[in-house]
């Protein structure tokens, strides 16, 4: 008989998803993805339906990993102009891979925030100078916060610089981060001498120039996930060693890649698998557009733990 699916809220996801456990899982998953058929990951490039009338987009992201035997689909709406609602709203539908039944509907906004920061942390682990002290966040929204938390797993930053379109949003985030945070008045000021730069804005034209970036810095380029959106200027993409989450997806979805005509040196999974070098002494860019496999692995951890301890969560 068909069972009603569980509903797992964003609050519950945050309690259940351990960042270190997720980092290990996503690192393995990105490696498996880059092994092709042998890795057992099935993940088509996402379908994006533009809702032009309302300046929004709907993404549909199915994925399966045979290693964990996990099957899920994320439905994600991204509306850059939302003001009173989050710009990203998402739901992950977790299905039983043995028979297709729907096991759970999991809040996908929280999963998207957490797993994207962790995917960047995996790239940073391999591509940034191990002696990184200055972090810059360009953008001060949901992803800026999750990236800060994820990167703290790897580095203790002396200074966290923040630039955003509105100074008020940067100031709010700086207050949350505490005394290491510094609000900057320009991108140039924010990135000067920075070891790690994270671009998590909704910019559609380049905001980060090559001449401002310290040679040897590592950049996680996370925004600009449409073919005509950009955060990094062409010369920065061309002069850096460019890594990506998925070559197939970035070649179709990333304006920074497509419009600069840069070469992609490797998928981060190829570095994890030891097939390509981690050239961390050079200026490196990790171009992330987001992968279904990251959602699948996050949802699997959440669902399994929920089934073990879910009923006790409310008491915590
Ligand atoms: N690669 C991936 O897997 C994912 C990428 N994203 C992308 O990451 C970016 C950030 O997402 P969220 O933090 O959830 O959005 P958000 O709406 O919470 O925050 C966006 C921030 O960027 C700032 N901003 C907007 N335009 C700017 C500009 N031109 N210059 C500087 N700052 C600007 C806003 O003031 C705000 O602080 C978006 O482009 C989003 O589509 C989101 C989820 C997953
Ligand atoms: O991977 C995701 O999830 C997203 N990527 C790009 C923007 C929308 C959400």
- Tell me the name of the CATH homologous superfamily of the largest domain: NAD(P)-binding Rossmann-like Domain
Radius of gyration: 19 Å
Task: Compute the number of strand runs.
Answer: 15
Overall domain count: 2
Helices, by number, come to: 11
Main beta-sheet strand count, sense and barrel state: 8 strands, parallel
Helix coverage percent: 25-40%
Brief summary:
Belongs to the ornithine cyclodeaminase/mu-crystallin family. The protein has helices at 10-16, 19-34, 108-127, 142-151, 167-177, 187-191, 234-239, 247-253, 255-260, 268-272, 292-309, and strands at 6-8, 41-42, 47-51, 56-65, 70-78, 88-95, 102-107, 134-138, 159-163, 181-183, 196-199, 218-221, 241-244, 266-267, 284-287. It is α/β, with parallel strands linked by helices.
Secondary structure topology:
Blueprint: E1 6-8, H1 10-16, H2 19-34, E2 41-42, E3 47-51, E4 56-65, E5 70-78, E6 88-95, E7 102-107, H3 108-127, E8 134-138, H4 142-151, E9 159-163, H5 167-177, E10 181-183, H6 187-191, E11 196-199, E12 218-221, H7 234-239, E13 241-244, H8 247-253, H9 255-260, E14 266-267, H10 268-272, E15 284-287, H11 292-309
Parallel strand pairs: 1-7, 8-9, 8-11, 9-10, 11-12, 12-15, 13-14, 13-15
Antiparallel strand pairs: 2-4, 3-4, 4-5, 5-6, 6-7
Helix pairs in contact: 1-3, 2-3, 2-11, 3-4, 3-11
The protein binds 1,4-dihydronicotinamide adenine dinucleotide and ligand LZCNNONV.
EC number: 1.5.1.1, 1.5.1.25
Protein name: Ketimine reductase mu-crystallin
Pfam families: OCD_Mu_crystall
Question: Would you write up a description of this structure?
Answer:
Belongs to the ornithine cyclodeaminase/mu-crystallin family. InterPro entries: NAD(P)-bd_dom_sf, ODC_Mu_crystall, ODC_N. Helix content is 35%, strand content 23%. The chain is of the alpha/beta class and 316 residues long. The chain has 2 domains: 6-112 and 293-315, ornithine cyclodeaminase, domain 1; 120-291, NAD(P)-binding Rossmann-like Domain (Rossmann fold). An 8-stranded parallel β-sheet has the order 10-9-8-11-12-15-13-14. Strands 1, 2, 3, 4, 5, 6 and 7 form a 7-stranded mixed β-sheet that branches. Helix 1 (10-16) runs parallel beside helix 3 (108-127). The model has no long low-confidence stretch (mean pLDDT 97). It binds 1,4-dihydronicotinamide adenine dinucleotide (NAI) and the ligand O=C(O)C1=NCCCC1. Residues 59, 76, 78, 88, 112, 225, 289-290 line the site of the ligand O=C(O)C1=NCCCC1.
